[in-house]
Amino acid sequence: SDSHFPVPISPNEIDYSLHYPQLFPSNDQRDRTKKIEFADIGCGFGGLLISLSTLFPEALMIGMELRDKVSEYVKERILALRVANPGQYQNISVVRTNSMKYIPNYFEKAQLSKMFFLFPDPHFKEKNHRRRVISPFLLDEYAYALRVGGIIYTITDVEELGEWMKTCLENHPLFEALTLEELEADPAVELLSSATEEGQKVARNEGRTFQAVYRRVAAAP
Ligand code: SAM
Questions:
Q1: Could you list the residue ranges that cross the membrane (predicted)?
Q2: DSSP codes, 48-80
């Protein structure tokens, strides 16, 4: 259940020295203008974070994962990479949490520039659609956490879920689709299908994928 992991009362309470010790040796004296910028929601085994880490070495990133053992595995994986590659992988970390409940505890308004939802659980049955990580209600929260110009990346191998995520984003007033040119120019886009463990499994099985990548826009005046 959810009740066994600590949740920060507010984003300000997150101890950066625990997550990124080399970059922030002291939490009390750290530069508070430098904040987590990318979130990988339901990060699974962490493949995306690891690829993003070297692609965007200046950005701080966090994975959110509900399963305790999986989040522990990601933690260990990051520590091992840090040891094997001194100076690298210092900008990524993971928390065990329920992202459907606690996004506002982790991110301030307009803090994030990228949010990733890669191969989320499909919850096929109609009555379980409310448990999907992309929904009109949750998009309001994601729009709050993302800055204007920030990007939300989604991909799935379940066509129906792909349609659902796209429709939710399309109908939301604070998101607009990236153009083809913008998708091609964004180095994060090609990681969606290749960097995560789930993406690699789908690729091995030559499965189709369905992506929706949208930008946070300002509210209409
Ligand atoms: N993104 C990874 C990938 O592409 O390999 C993992 C995909 S896996 C199918 C979905 C993951 O989301 C699982 O690891 C699951 O534990 C996690 N998850 C499901 N609901 C969640 C929630 N409410 N908060 C955080 N993580 C969640």
A1: none
A2: HHHHHHHHSTTSEEEEEES-HHHHHHHHHHHHH
Counted domains in the chain: 1
Of all protein residues, whose CA lies closest to atom 23 belonging to ligand 1?
98
Of the residues 121, 140, 157, 186, only one is catalytic, namely 121
Question: pLDDT by residue (tens digit) across 52-62?
Answer: 999 999 999 99
Q: Does the annotation mark 121 as catalytic?
A: yes
Report which ligand 1 atom has the smallest distance to the Cα of 120.
10
Among residues 69, 94, 51, the alpha carbon closest in space to that of 4 is found at 69
Residue 65 is part of which domain span? Answer: 34-216
pLDDT digits (tens, 9 = 90+) for 3-51: 578 999 999 999 999 999 999 999 999 999 999 999 999 999 999 999 9
The ipTM value here is 0.99
CA of 70 to the centre of ligand 1 (A): 9
Which protein residue's CA is at the shortest distance from atom 11 of ligand 1? 42
CATH classification of the domain holding 166: 3.40.50.150
Q: Is the pLDDT of residue 124 over 90?
A: no
CA distance 64 to 162: 21
